[in-house]
């Protein structure tokens, strides 16, 4: 994993908010990450920010993203994890901080779990635009 050449990158916090909006797709979330180039950019740990964001995220989608990226962590080993469990464990909070803010997907695809439609990620920017026949 290398350092990014620019600050414009897709972080996992972004992935947690994206879904496939193709016509006819009912379950387009969470998108599958197929990463070709991932970079780690260290940043200061902000526990308060992680706690606030954690309460608004889908943990199952975060776990899916981490597994797609072949990451490991204490919080991934706990089945049926809860926000309360993570908030009570500083190591888990730091792991989540790393996943949400320090992991940057530079190249690859986001794949709709229902239709299989691939949305490219180029230079850290996911292209979620649909073709005319998909709207």
UniProtKB/TrEMBL annotation:
Pfam families: Trm112p. GO terms for molecular function: protein heterodimerization activity. It comes from Spumella elongata. Belongs to the TRM112 family. GO terms for biological process: rRNA (guanine-N7)-methylation; tRNA methylation. This is Multifunctional methyltransferase subunit TRM112-like protein.
């Amino acid at each position: 994993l290398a350092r990014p050449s620019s600050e414009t990158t897709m972080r996992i916090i972004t992935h947690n908010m994206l879904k496939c909006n193709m016509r006819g797709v009912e379950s387009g979330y969470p998108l599958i990450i197929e990463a070709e180039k991932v970079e780690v950019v260290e940043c200061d740990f902000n526990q308060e920010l992680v706690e606030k964001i954690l309460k608004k995220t889908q943990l199952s989608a975060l776990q899916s993203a981490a597994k797609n990226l072949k990451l490991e962590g204490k919080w991934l080993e706990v089945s049926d994890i809860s926000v309360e469990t993570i908030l009570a464990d500083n190591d888990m909070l730091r792991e989540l901080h790393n996943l949400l803010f320090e992991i940057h997907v530079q190249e690859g695809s986001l794949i709709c779990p229902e239709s299989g439609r691939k949305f490219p990620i180029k230079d850290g920017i996911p292209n979620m635009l649909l073709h005319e026949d998909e709207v």
